[in-house]
Design brief:
Elements: H1 5-25, H2 42-53, H3 58-70, H4 80-111, H5 127-135, H6 147-168, H7 170-182, H8 194-208, H9 220-241, H10 247-271, H11 275-280, H12 286-308, H13 313-338, H14 340-346
C-alpha cells in the first residue's frame, strides 16, 4: 500500500499541530494557580479546554499514525528484526539521550541548590523510582512527555503479535484494547498510557485492511465542529468537577482522547488546503525537536518565573508560549546547521528541513507538570 502525497502531507501536518498542542498539556503551574481554583474565570476554563480536553487527542492520534505507517507494506513487507533495529535508532535512542540529558541536568541543578520544588529529585528516589526516571520502567521519565517514545517502542516490539491478532480476531482485539483504554485508573504495566496501545493497534488495523482513511473527508466541517463541541462540553464537565473528577468524567475524557483523533484527521483535510497548512506540513524534523525539548525549557521558564515575584499566572502561561516556540525553532535550526551529525542522532535521523514522504509519583506539591 502506497501512502499518497495528500496523506503524507497531512500526516506531517498532524505531527506539528498535535505536538504543538501537547505543549499546552505540560505548561507547569503550582497549587495556587491550578485552573480548578477559578481565579481567572474564562481563562482557567480555556486552560482546561486546551490541556485536559482538546489536545488530549495528541498522543493517541500520533500512535495511530505510527501503527498505520508501520504496516503500510502489509504483513509480507514487514521485516521485524530490521524494524526493531531501525526503531531502536529512531525512537528508543532519542528517548534515552534526551531523557538522560535532562536527568543529569536535574542532578546538577539540585546539587547546587537550584530547582528544589520544581523538579522531581533523583536524590531521594528509590531504586525503582530511579529506573522510572531514567527508563520509564513503571512510571513517567524525568523528561515527562518522552513516555510516549517509550510506549511507542514497546508497541513496536509487540507489533507482530498485535498484527497477528488483528488478522485473526480484529474486532475482539480492538474491543478488548479499547475497553482497557477507557476504564479509569487501570494500570496495564507494559505501557504507561493504555490509549497508545489501542490507537497503535487500530493504526495496524487500518493499514492491514486498507481502510480508506480519506473516506470521511467530505464530512470534515461537521467532524471538526463535533470535535470542538465535544471538547468544550468535556472541558466544562472537568472544570466544574475537578480536580477530583467522577468516574464518568474520567471515562468521557478517555473516550474523547481516542475518538477525537478522527476529528483531528478531518481537520487536516481542511488545513492542508490552506497556505498555512502547506507550510506547516513542510516543517520536517522540527516537530520531533519540539516534542523532545519543550518540557525542559518549560521547567526552566517556570523556575525563572518563580524568581520574578509576579503572581499573575496568565502572563506566564501566554509569555512562556511566546518564548518557547521561537527558542525551539531557532535551536532546531542552529543544531541542525552547526552539528548535523549530532542533530541526526538526537532526532532519530529526522534531519530533513522540509517534509518528506511518510516512509517507512512522587511529585512535589510545589510543581504540577500535568503528567499524561
Amino acid at each position: 500500500m502506497n501512502v499518497d502525497t495528500n496523506v503524507s502531507s497531512r500526516i506531517n501536518l498532524m505531527r506539528i499541530v498535535l505536538i504543538s498542542g501537547i505543549v499546552f498539556v505540560h505548561i507547569p503551574f503550582d497549587p495556587a494557580n491550578t485552573p480548578f481554583n477559578g481565579n481567572y474565570g474564562f481563562f482557567d476554563w480555556l486552560r482546561v479546554f486546551l490541556s485536559e480536553a482538546l489536545f488530549r487527542v495528541g498522543v493517541p492520534c500520533l500512535s495511530a499514525i505510527s501503527g498505520y505507517l508501520l504496516f503500510r507494506g502489509g504483513m509480507e513487507g514487514f521485516d521485524y528484526l530490521k524494524t526493531v533495529r531501525t526503531k531502536a535508532q529512531t525512537v528508543f535512542l532519542p528517548f534515552l539521550l534526551w531523557n538522560t540529558a535532562f536527568f543529569i541536568a536535574v542532578l546538577a541543578m539540585l546539587s547546587i541548590g537550584i530547582g528544589d520544588g520544581y523538579v522531581i529529585s533523583p536524590w531521594t528516589a528509590s531504586v525503582r523510582g530511579l529506573l522510572s526516571q531514567l527508563f520509564a520502567l513503571e512510571d513517567f521519565p524525568a523528561n515527562i512527555p518522552l513516555y510516549f517514545l517509550r510506549d511507542l517502542f514497546v508497541c513496536i516490539l509487540l507489533s507482530p503479535l498485535l498484527a497477528w491478532l488483528i488478522r485473526r480476531v480484529p474486532l475482539l482485539t480492538l474491543s478488548a484494547l479499547l475497553l482497557l483504554a477507557l476504564i479509569p485508573e487501570l494500570s496495564l504495566y507494559i505501557v504507561i498510557k493504555r490509549s497508545i496501545l489501542f490507537s497503535f493497534t487500530f493504526g495496524i488495523y487500518a493499514s492491514l485492511y486498507k481502510l480508506d482513511i480519506k473516506a470521511l473527508d467530505r464530512f470534515a466541517p461537521l467532524g471538526v465542529a463535533a470535535l470542538f463541541i465535544a471538547s468544550a462540553l468535556l472541558a466544562t464537565a472537568i472544570y466544574t468537577t475537578g480536580p477530583l473528577m467522577p468516574s464518568w468524567v474520567e471515562l468521557s475524557r478517555n473516550a474523547l482522547a481516542i475518538g477525537g483523533a478522527a476529528g483531528f484527521w478531518m481537520l487536516s483535510a481542511l488545513l492542508i488546503k490552506t497556505r498555512l497548512g502547506q507550510r506547516l506540513s513542510k516543517t520536517g524534523s522540527l516537530s520531533f525537536w519540539i516534542f523532545c525539548a519543550h518540557y525542559p525549557l518549560l521547567v526552566f521558564l517556570w523556575m525563572v518565573w518563580g524568581k520574578m515575584g509576579i503572581d499573575f499566572y496568565p502572563l506566564f502561561f501566554c509569555g512562556s508560549l511566546l518564548v518557547l516556540f521561537p527558542v525551539l525553532a531557532v535551536s532546531n535550526n542552529l543544531v541542525r546547521n552547526t552539528a548535523p551529525r549530532l542533530y541526526a542522532v538526537l532526532t532519530g535521523g529526522r534531519s530533513k528541513k522540509g517534509s518528506s514522504p511518510a516512509s517507512r509519583r512522587e511529585i512535589p506539591a510545589e510543581f504540577i507538570p500535568q503528567q499524561r
